[in-house]
């Protein structure tokens, strides 16, 4: 587990003891779970792992399939600061929100960037980030006017002329996952956009996204001459200074920020065509059941992403407990971050926005 010069730390799944990455024994069947020794492995099998081993084995068999091999920058993260340092963006531009070094600043209120150019926002060399300009055809001479339908990262990078050595996919995963939902997964919003109509997205629980608004501006160019997007970001992490504020990127994209819980604010918001929550963590936050009640009553297509298949399994239980039927099954998200998140105690494939599922579709 030595990756680009550092050793990834590991931890026993049973007792949480730190173990050497090279010496840590794994479950011999699924290869997923890490232990400090055979005593903990035996106890964990009896207590918990026996019921999960076959499922974990199936997940591990998909590890190679889930890896996005086109990228040629480091694609394993155990500590955000280390990874950001490797790709030379630690403490810079929008990347500052990918680690805890600027946690004293509220979401959405990071200090101003070094410059107003896309290079300053992204803190990358020219040509390594999406230009603040419309999409051009393959000859680079004619502006693409129609809505762009994308199948994955390679197509997007090629379209924008970005080399596969650029790490921008780690941030663009958020706006492009949203774009994938409204232009591919949800037929109603795709049709509406194609007809030149507006759609409203209720975007629940934003955090880092509040500092990544420049990345979301890419959606305005992808939409071309089709309809427009109004993204209403609602959540308790929206700072008071931003609540009620709207910002527009030409006529194609408008973002509005609302502080509060969805169940408290939904009645005062413009009606949605789709509800989205990225890296939702439905089993993690106690406020989700109230929000899911609203989604159930609205009967509006709603999509959730999460890091891994076990997270999505927990999400399905929460959704079903709220009386919602899983109508779009758990599926790998083609616009997941290419950077695998290394858990301390298991090897199960995990990515920001790794998998997507939906209800009311």
UniProtKB/TrEMBL annotation:
Pfam families: MSS51_C, zf-MYND. It comes from the Eukaryota. Residues 12-53 form the MYND-type domain. Keywords: Metal-binding, Zinc, Zinc-finger. InterPro entries: Mss51-like_C, Znf_MYND. Gene3D superfamilies: 6.10.140.2220. GO terms for molecular function: zinc ion binding. PANTHER family: MYND-TYPE DOMAIN-CONTAINING PROTEIN, ZINC ION BINDING PROTEIN. This is MYND-type domain-containing protein. It comes from Ceratopteris richardii (Triangle waterfern).
